[in-house]
Amino acid sequence: MSRASLEKRPEEVQAMFDDVAPRYDLVNDILSMGQTRLWRKVVVDAVGAAPGQRVLDLAAGTGTSSEPYADAGIEVVACDFSLGMLGVGKRRRPDIDFVAGDATNLPFADDSFDATTISFGLRNVGDPQLALAEMLRVTKPGGRLVVCEFSHPTFAPWRTVYTEYLMRALPPIARKVASNPAAYVYLAESIRAWPNQDGLAGWIADAGWEGCRYRNLSGGIVAVHRATKPLDGEASTAAARRAKASDYLRHRASRPAR
Ligand SMILES: C[S@@+](CC[C@H](N)C(=O)[O-])C[C@H]1O[C@@H](n2cnc3c(N)ncnc32)[C@H](O)[C@@H]1O
């Protein structure tokens, strides 16, 4: 199944997350069998932020991925385009700065964050390569990128077991516990259609990040990619990044309407 065949319009993705927002965190814990807590800890360690630094948690949803930074006294901005997800987050954690914004057109100035991270969000963005370019734009030179996303198990037998779980077991469980089970069928299909670890590393490098490395978690069910924004040539690359972003926008505008 190709990613293009699964593509949803941004308004559809927004509506889907508005729908799942009330039970999002509970359903996540059930479907991942508690593994999300372990994965989130690895992400926080990879971001390696210290008090005094500013972190952007993009596609932050209800802010569960932003909480560890706030708890450690680090300034975190939780940005997402689903007002439903942001509303649930703000009610639970009024102390966190929740900002409505689209990952492909971020409402932040160039070079404004020490680290930018996205957990289980990039796969849902309509144009993930444009989002990676936007994340580069808003990160300070020398700043860090950490992407946590579902990926592809590396050991073939484990991949078979996992694919069976995704395609056969997950949808019936989702029907019992989720407010919008169709969203979890989409989840399973979008995970299968997502690039593998090296494919995503290639996208990250293409967007202008350097030194991309990744770590597989739970045998590759999840991968955490990290990279750094180049220190040199910031002035010239700022213009290049803007040109790159408008290339993507032009390319997107020229695609046939779905
Ligand atoms: C699976 S949730 C992840 C939430 C959170 N990061 C976590 O780890 O629990 C994915 C989020 O991506 C957001 N999202 C998808 N496309 C987006 C876009 N273009 N701009 C901003 N947020 C987006 C959705 O609204 C949703 O809240």
Q: What is the overall pLDDT average?
A: 87
Beta-strand content bin = 15-25%
- What strand order characterises the main sheet? 3-2-1-4-5-7-6
Q: State the end-to-end CA separation.
A: 17 Å
C-alpha geometry = globular
Give the helix/strand class: alpha/beta
The sequence of SSEs as H and E is HHHHEHEHEEHEHHHEEH
Instruction: Show unreliable segments.
Output: none
**Number of DSSP helical runs:** 11
The Cα radius of gyration reads: 17 Å
The largest β sheet comes out as: 7 strands, mixed
Helix content: 40-55%
Number of strands: 7
Bound small molecules, by name, code or SMILES, are:
S-adenosylmethionine
Question: What are the main properties of this structure?
Answer:
single chain, 258 residues, seven-stranded mixed beta sheet, 11 helices, binds S-adenosylmethionine
Summarize the structure.
The protein contains 11 helices and 7 strands. The protein has helices spanning 3-6, 10-20, 24-31, 35-47, 67-71, 83-92, 128-138, 156-177, 181-193, 197-206, 234-254, and strands at 54-58, 75-80, 97-100, 113-119, 139-150, 210-217, 222-228.
Question: What this model shows, in words?
Answer:
The chain has a seven-stranded mixed beta sheet with strand order 3-2-1-4-5-7-6, sandwiched between helices. α6 (83-92) links the parallel β2 and β3 (97-100). The chain has helices at residues 3-6, 10-20, 24-31, 35-47, 67-71, 83-92, 128-138, 156-177, 181-193, 197-206, 234-254; strands at 54-58, 75-80, 97-100, 113-119, 139-150, 210-217, 222-228. The chain is α/β, with parallel strands linked by helices and 258 residues long. 50% of the residues lie in helices and 19% in strands. The mean pLDDT is 87. The structure holds S-adenosylmethionine (SAM). S-adenosylmethionine is lined by residues 10, 13, 17, 59-61, 64-65, 80-82, 85, 102-104, 119-121, 124-125.
